[in-house]
């Protein structure tokens, strides 16, 4: 088990080096950023504890990997695999737990402790429907794969709004609503298509990105709007949820552009940090959105036949 965590540490260090960052400075920067983001969250926003919980769920969900889990189970066995997942999830949850306790949200700290156990013992990817139809036809593949892989999580988020006791409704509505956007973002960040799919595109790279972002926003709206309407019917029209809806759509658009700005690699820690800051301090997105857009064009333009004709 120790060997596994040594490999994980080496893998993270290698990613820092690939970005031209010394791993020591990378870990230090990540720690300082988390502290800064936590401070901003708890001082600048209403209900920061629920934003915290949604961020934790997003982080854990983005690490769900069926192939990796199956490989670890084959190597270490089921019992040791669960222990690895518990330790790994616990390490991820530890800074979140310290944050909510430090700011006095003791009840929410209980949920922070429970979540890693849920993700350790319940392999959400096993509940995915790999062969069934989805509402998303053949394209985009991100929503097809993401929907099938995370269908249990999607159902759970909706059920938390539909059946929760009224005294907890507002709090759980915030967690579920933000959790939807966090989950949908993983549809794009964790599904990288082969370059051959871009090479057969007959559109220009600008048209491709425009449609990709527009498509992502429309399909995201198709998933979150029913929940928004349910919350509105139960709680009345609430300005906070309207703001969450707008910022969530901005978040998805930035994630899509960041995906192609870093293609064929996954979204880097630095890019993820910029996306997060752009949403939290949304006026910054007026600068970062076009930067990601032009970076994405520059990064994938050579793959498009249209641009060579």
UniProtKB/TrEMBL annotation:
Annotated keywords: Membrane, Transmembrane, Transmembrane helix
Record-annotated membrane-spanning stretches: 21-39, 86-104, 110-129, 150-168, 174-192, 213-235, 241-261, 273-294
Protein's name according to its UniProt entry: ABC transporter permease
């Amino acid at each position: 088990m120790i060997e596994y965590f040594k490999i994980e540490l080496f893998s993270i260090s290698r990613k820092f080096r690939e970005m031209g960052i010394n791993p020591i400075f990378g870990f230090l920067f990540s720690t300082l950023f988390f502290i800064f983001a936590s401070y901003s969250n708890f001082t600048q926003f209403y209900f920061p504890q629920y934003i915290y919980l949604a961020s934790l769920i997003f982080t854990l969900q983005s690490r769900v990997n069926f192939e990796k889990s199956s490989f670890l189970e084959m190597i270490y066995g089921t019992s040791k695999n669960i222990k690895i997942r518990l330790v790994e999830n616990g390490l991820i949850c530890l800074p979140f737990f310290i944050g909510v306790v430090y700011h006095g949200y003791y009840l929410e700290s209980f949920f922070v402790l429970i979540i890693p156990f849920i993700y350790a013992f319940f392999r959400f990817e096993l509940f995915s429907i790999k062969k069934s139809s989805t509402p998303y036809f053949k394209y985009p593949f991100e929503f097809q794969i993401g929907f099938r892989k995370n269908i249990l999580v999607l159902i759970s988020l909706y059920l938390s709004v539909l059946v929760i006791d009224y005294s907890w409704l507002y709090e759980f509505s915030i967690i579920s609503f933000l959790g939807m956007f966090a989950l949908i973002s993983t549809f794009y960040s964790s599904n990288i298509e082969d370059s051959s799919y871009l090479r057969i595109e007959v559109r220009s790279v600008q048209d491709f990105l425009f449609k990709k972002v527009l498509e992502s926003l429309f399909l995201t709206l198709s998933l979150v709007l029913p929940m928004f309407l349910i919350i509105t019917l139960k709680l009345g029209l609430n300005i906070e949820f309207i703001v969450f809806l707008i910022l969530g759509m901005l978040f998805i658009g930035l994630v899509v552009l960041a995906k192609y700005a870093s293609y064929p690699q996954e979204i880097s820690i630095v890019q993820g940090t910029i996306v997060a800051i752009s949403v939290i301090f949304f006026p910054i997105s007026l600068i970062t959105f076009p930067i990601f857009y032009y970076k994405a064009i520059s990064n994938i333009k050579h793959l498009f036949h249209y641009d060579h004709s």
